[in-house]
Amino acid sequence: MEPHPSFGLFVTGTDTGVGKTHVGTALAAALAARGVDVRVRKPVESGCAPREGALFPADADALRRAAGAREPLQSVCRYRLAAPLSPERAAALEGIALELDMLHRACVDAVPPEACLLVEGAGGFYSPIARGALNADLAVRLGLPVLLVTADRLGTIHHTLLAAEALRARGLRLAAVVLNRVGADVDREMDNAGELERWLGHAVLRFPHGGDAAAAERALAPLLAALAERRPGGGQ
């Protein structure tokens, strides 16, 4: 079996559509701007539309461009599926036997040991990603700390606490929680960030709605600092 990558994050969400790629691209761009050799992987993407005779993984392409477009798109996203369903179901509809080992290899192949590996899952933490396997299983196989993305909306406290408990039960470390789209169509009496911090016992990163790259980088500053401390070579 391939060794665990030593430096990076597994980016997952409390649900589909919470903004994993939005947060992931901002993180990849900020790391690349700091001179980090960042390698992004979205090993499987479903809901891909055809482009120039092939399925085009839009999320994976956004991640690739954010990281500096140093690698071919095939390295970023090895498996592309048409149906906008879980990868397990979409692959079954296309007659593809998508296995967890295949996704793991797609994540770690051609990644130098000193590089920062950012892997984005598909859907939520407990969404099926391969035959008989969940995103959680891929996260465990990789052994990376988890960046959990959730949306600033009603119900997010329940979803986030469940996901945080699930990943800890799997022996994974919660690197950070990002509350996405803070201030977008939210009841002003709600304080999801404050409530999550109280229940989780640590800071929640607030990702602003409609913010520019500088605002996104400010929101991610604590996570960027933590990654710098773990960078091979002592952060140099």
Averaged pLDDT = 93
What's the CATH architecture name?
3-Layer(aba) Sandwich
In the CATH hierarchy, the third-tier topology is known as Rossmann fold
Query: What is the helix content?
Result: 25-40%
Q: In the CATH hierarchy, what is the superfamily?
A: P-loop containing nucleotide triphosphate hydrolases
Number of domains: 1
Largest beta-sheet details: 6 strands, parallel
Q: Which descriptor suits the 3D outline?
A: globular
Strand order of the largest sheet: 2-7-1-10-11-12
Structural class: alpha/beta
| Low confidence ranges | none
Under CATH at level 1, the class stands as Alpha Beta
Radius of gyration, taken over Cα atoms and rounded to an integer in Å? 17 Å
| H-E string | EHEEEEHHEHHEEEHEHEHEHH
Give the amount of beta strand, in percent.
15-25%
Tally of individual helices: 10
Kindly state the number of beta strands: 12
N- to C-terminal distance: 30 Å
Name some characteristics of this structure.
ATP binding, Rossmann fold, single chain, 236 residues, ligase, magnesium, ATP-dependent dethiobiotin synthetase BioD, 22% strand
